[in-house]
User: Fold this.
Amino acid sequence: MLGKCPYCDDGIIVMQKKIVQGRDTKVYTCSNAKFHTEDGELFESVGKCSYRIWGNSLLKYGKRAIGEREVRELLREGVFIAVLHSKRGVEYKKYVTTNEEYGVSVLFEDEVAV
Assistant:
């Protein structure tokens, strides 16, 4: 158990491993979420909650994976600081928060105080 689901009353977030596009990926899902797939790639929610965070959801921003420590912090604090990389290799930090539809959202407009 990593923490309480931010979108349903009695769910807890747990980690599972899935294979997506031939690669092992962690997915952090609500215990009330049930996913169905016909092709092994596209997962549809058939449970009472559909909240999930794909471990590789920040890959397009240069972050390889979201770890369990970051998920715990996100569920406890509502936000965590991610170290991201631009396409030119410039490192920058941004806040990441929960998003019911996408799992997480990067708050690009907010500056991280370090």
About this structure: The longest helix spans residues 68-77. Residues 3-107 form one domain.
